[in-house]
Amino acid sequence: MKPRWIQPYHLLPVLFGAVFSVFAHPADMSELQVTVDRQRIDFRFTFNLPILQRISPLDRNADGSVDNTELEAAGPLLIEQFNRHAVLKINGQPLSWSQVIVSPVWPKQNSAPLTDVDRCVDLQFVQTTPEVIANFALDFTLFPLMGEGSEIEGHYIQGEHRLHVPFSANQPDYLYDTGFAVEHLFQSPVAKPAPDARWGALPLLGLSLLSGILVVLIVSRWKRRHGAP
To answer: Helices (H) and strands (E) in the chain — how many of each?
Structure first.
């Protein structure tokens, strides 16, 4: 019996499977993008439909699917759930979630089945403060609602700075320091402007004129005293 050699094309299914496993988005994984500014923080959560349905009911007409109208109607209930299960503190002070923009990540004129893990929804919150944001903290108790093994992959963006923060039932909170409150300590001192060279020369010019006048007076007095013409 001749040995069977593995041909390169035999490896294609394995390679494709490995590639798709790397880039696949797990059904229990959600995303959070946090954009930080001095007095403003933008939060954008991305949940798939099954997870969002577990956080708050979406299907108002009980047809097994959800459309844009139902998503917009779910906004107040989602805000209530976030105020219960996603504690936000800015500069140590608790702050309520107030307004949310609910946006389906698919054409708005279409509906989607609630079981479709590939259909996602963005929840966008904007928090502003009159004072400079020195730090802020998130503490999630959403994970029992989202399902066992669920996680939120956080991505913090502040200018050119990027930070990855994973949240889970075992790691539900994180305190982020912006550095805005102490940035003045790292600024270079402002250089004093150099004095104008013209003004700096005035004292020397005045001294020269005074010396010339004194010389003239002394010579004139000497001539009068000695009768010189």
So the answer is: 7, 12
Rg of the chain over Cα atoms, rounded to whole angstroms, equals 36
**Rounded-to-integer distance, Cα 137 and Cα 167, Å:** 12
Residue pLDDT, tens place only, 148-194: 899 999 999 999 999 999 999 999 999 999 999 887 666 665 666 66
pLDDT at 122: 97
**Is the Cα dihedral 84, 142, 105, 38 positive or negative?**
positive
**Pair of tokens at residue 117:** 């893990």
Q: How far is CA 16 from CA 6, 10, 13, 24, 125, in A?
A: 17, 11, 5, 12, 38
Q: Is the pLDDT of residue 9 over 50?
A: no
CB atoms within 10 A of CB 15: 10
Alpha helices in the chain (DSSP H): 12-23, 49-55, 68-73, 75-85, 143-146, 197-200, 202-226
Q: Can you name the residues that pair with 177 across neighbouring β-strands?
A: 135
Beta strands in 99-203 (DSSP E): 101-104, 112-113, 120-128, 135-140, 151-158, 161-168, 173-177
